[in-house]
Amino acid sequence: MQREPTFRARPRRRTADARLTSAPRPPADTAGPSGARSAGTPGAGTSGWDARSDDDAPATADGYRGGPAGEGPGRPPDRGALLTRIGIIACAAGVGLALLLLPLVGAIGLFAKSSADHYLSLPDELLTPPLPQSSQILAADGSLIATLRGETNRTVVDGKDIPVVMRQAIVAIEDSRFYSHGGVDVKGVVRAALRNSEAGDVQQGASTLTQQYVKNVLLQNAHTRQQREDAAGTSLERKIQEARYAVTLENKISKDEILERYLNIAYFGNGNYGVGTAAQNYFQTHIAKLTLPQAALLAGLVQSPSLYDPVNHPDAARTRRDIVLDRMAALGYVAPADAAAAKAAPVQVVHAAAAAARDSCETSSASFFCDFVRSRLLADPALGTTDAERARRVYEGGLVIRTTLQPKVQAAVQNTVNAVIAPDNPVSATEVVIEPGTGNILAMAVNRVFGSDSATNQTKEPLATKAVFQPGSTFKTFTLAAALEAGYGLNTQFYSPSCYSTKKFPLDRRDGSPCATGYSNADPAESGVYDLSKATWDSVNTYYIQLEEKIGVPAVVDMAVRLGIPASYLEDVHPTKGDLTIGSERVTPLDMANAYATLAAHGMRCDPRYVLSAADSSNQNVDIAPEPVCKRTVTAGVADTVTSILAGVITQGTGYPNAAAIGRPAAGKTGTTDNYSAAWFVGYTPQMAASVAVGNPKGAQGNPLKGIVADGRTWSRVFGGDLPAIIWGRSLRAALSGVPAMPMSKANPTVAKGTKGGLLSTPPPPPPQPTAPATATTDTPAAPTAAAAPAAAPDIVEPVLPPGRFPFQGSGGDERPGR
């Protein structure tokens, strides 16, 4: 049964805010030898100034504590040694008393006036910058996505979360008179001086918990090698300075706050700074839930984290823990029976590498999003002007970053990409979901384990934000929007042959193919007169090449950039690059999702946004979370008319039936690149826009999507309406479960009618019919001869294709799944 101690701060001290925050970490070369007392960095020790200021040395039969080795009670002490000890004790007592009294009455007795003046001239205000501590990335609902750790792996905990048993354990073993001394323990000084004089060297120190905290802070503030050596030294000058700071600190803040600060700054081994971090990483528990044996184990570590390392030296750790438990029982903090029960408990800690040595995003629930957020933070000038400043702020600034990610949506997307295309498949599946009207990134998933082991198909390549694949016919949407804006209505028609050549977009592949100088459709049978809607639903390449001729390549570039594609991706596109409309330029899934989200938001483009709020360890706002940045880049009439056309892709076009699995009104577009090197589906509802890209990231051109095993079958070739549409439909169905379905926008009548349209190209004349043999004259009138169709435009060529050829030219071309 634990006895509740009285932890009262003396009334003359004022209470300060005990929460510690982050500060620049000391360089790694401050680590000292194994077995030295830790002072906030591994091994940064007191080198013999043992902090135990209690009377924990065992007494001999005559009551004498700590006598020289081999000296028994019946042996008369050496007269010279006795006089030496008496002198040392007197000096030690005088020093201790003087340190306590000098601030009030000056140098009296043992110190000369010059010594007193020197003491009083020492700084007494301890600079306590925020402690280095890990930063946290949170989801929109506040759940933890990842902890970003630097070399100083620390999570500062609030004093109210530190249980009494932990406070009792550290006080019992480190400074049992903590609540009675004034920062310097005179009795401890005398005891240490006596023991060290008998041993002939420094065997024990007299640092109180307050002095230990001061030393930790001094080490934390040290930036040069000399400063670190001075802070960790054992000189009298250094001890006097520590005492000066300690006495002043005790008169400024409460005992409880000093103890809280100490527990947050102390090093507990294995890369764990602070008791909260140690509790989590050793026991996988929150600090508030520590048990008696766990608290005793942690308290025992601070004297020598290496010697008592519970991971590598469990027996030594148990021995030290039991000493702490005995001390707690001796002081009345716990009942002897409770201490005995705790001592019977085995030492059980997590046998894992130090968390600080691991990539913080590898174990995240949203690894690729975590990596994206981290990269954006490290590049944000609001967090520092140099790479080093930003890294220190990100990894040790104690930032709490609440992101836009929604766990439900993330889980739906991640589960779907993994289920449809397994993580060990060489083909990757990447999906990004964005909220229209805000730009908030709701999910980001890749069917890969985030890691560096390429042998097991792990990757850290940012497939969601890197332009790896060409988008195929999903880029036709930008041509569609530009044409509507230019006045081409829904009745705009072109005769669209299976192969189309044009002088405006010259092309000569010199490969001997039937359509070496032109652009072709997916199927040689796919030719005829198409209007704007039907050509979009069936993704007719040669229609869109002719439409692009009318509006010009620069208009397509301009529309793509206005909707959300970065201009840098398209800055080198020449006005004669006709294959732009069928997706020749690489883009990212993030940018495609954002561009389509602009259409879902009726023409309001919002910058992709990943953070909702950010605060530092002092709970002060960090200016990296602006409100949504949105502006109108296309009229609602144009955007809504595009939406009305893209809705047909899902209900009756290349996206049916797989994308229709979403089970609610939606709009979207398929995309399949040349030689099946990649396949896409990008679509949206009023609440979510998502893009799915499928391909082999090791080289899309050399690794076509042929013979792919996925979703329980083998795909001879993969179109945008196949695996990408399957992933899109299933993932958004799960992500939107419980969310009311909303209708899609209707076409704007004025935009749909347009100012231009009609049949803008005509089909070639039909081949001549064979002449019938002469027959006898009859009374039956001859059938009327059909009027010959106008000749085709001179820059249009319609080659005869050999049976069975499916010449993909450029980067676009879709067909219905299964054809």
Describe this entry's structure for a reader.
The protein is an alpha+beta fold and 819 residues long. It has 23 helices and 19 strands. A hairpin with a 5-residue loop joins strand 15 (667-672) and strand 16. It is elongated, with a radius of gyration of 38 Å.
Beta percentage is 5-15%
Uncertain spans = 1-77, 79-93, 97-112, 774-819
Shape: elongated
Report Rg. 38 Å
Mean pLDDT: 81
Total DSSP helices: 23
Task: Fill in the keyword field for this structure.
single chain, 819 residues, alpha+beta, five-stranded antiparallel sheet
Task: Please sum up the structure shown.
The protein is 33% helix and 9% strand. The protein is α+β, with helices and mostly antiparallel strands and 819 residues long.
List the helices and strands and how they pair.
Layout: H1 79-105, H2 113-121, E1 135-138, E2 144-148, E3 153-154, H3 164-174, H4 186-199, H5 209-221, H6 225-232, H7 236-250, H8 255-265, E4 272-273, H9 275-283, H10 292-301, H11 314-330, H12 336-344, H13 367-378, H14 387-396, E5 400-403, H15 407-420, E6 428-434, E7 441-446, H16 476-485, E8 494-496, E9 499-500, E10 519-520, E11 528-530, H17 532-537, H18 541-551, H19 553-563, H20 589-600, E12 604-606, E13 611-615, E14 630-632, H21 636-652, E15 667-672, E16 678-684, E17 689-695, E18 708-710, E19 713-715, H22 723-735, H23 749-753
Parallel strand pairs: 1-5, 3-4
Antiparallel strand pairs: 1-2, 5-13, 6-7, 6-17, 8-11, 9-10, 12-14, 15-16, 16-17, 18-19
